[in-house]
């Protein structure tokens, strides 16, 4: 994990492996900031959808029980959202380096769309 101090806040960049391990232990809330269309086509099972255009850092839940980690397709949007959360006064926030593309490249399980039927299906499980 990489960390960056921004004022009194800590901005964290987690690797796919770190996210996957924490996700498996139910230690984090994973928030996908991609579009609804991207999410519907493929997503990490159980990740929450909060598209970047609708993001409001002041409405995020506290992190007393679980750390919030954002992800997007490549890591660009999730980094922007994470920095916006810090600007809004959240003192510890994180995003996943490389985004969903890195998740897939690491062959982590996700929900994809069966192109023959249009139905959701497990991939890499």
UniProtKB/TrEMBL annotation:
* Gene name in the database record: moeZ_3
PANTHER family from the entry?
FAD-DEPENDENT OXIDOREDUCTASE (PTHR43031), PYRIDINE NUCLEOTIDE-DISULPHIDE OXIDOREDUCTASE (PTHR43031:SF1)
The UniProt record lists the Rhodanese domain at 24-112
Q: Does the keyword Nucleotidyltransferase apply?
A: yes
Q: Which InterPro entries match?
A: GlpE_sulfurtransferase (IPR050229), Rhodanese-like_dom (IPR001763), Rhodanese-like_dom_sf (IPR036873)
Q: Which organism is this entry from? A: Roseovarius halotolerans
* Keywords assigned by UniProt, alphabetized: Nucleotidyltransferase, Transferase
Entry's Gene Ontology molecular function annotations: nucleotidyltransferase activity
Instruction: Tell me the domain of life.
Output: Bacteria
Name used for this protein in its record: Putative adenylyltransferase/sulfurtransferase MoeZ
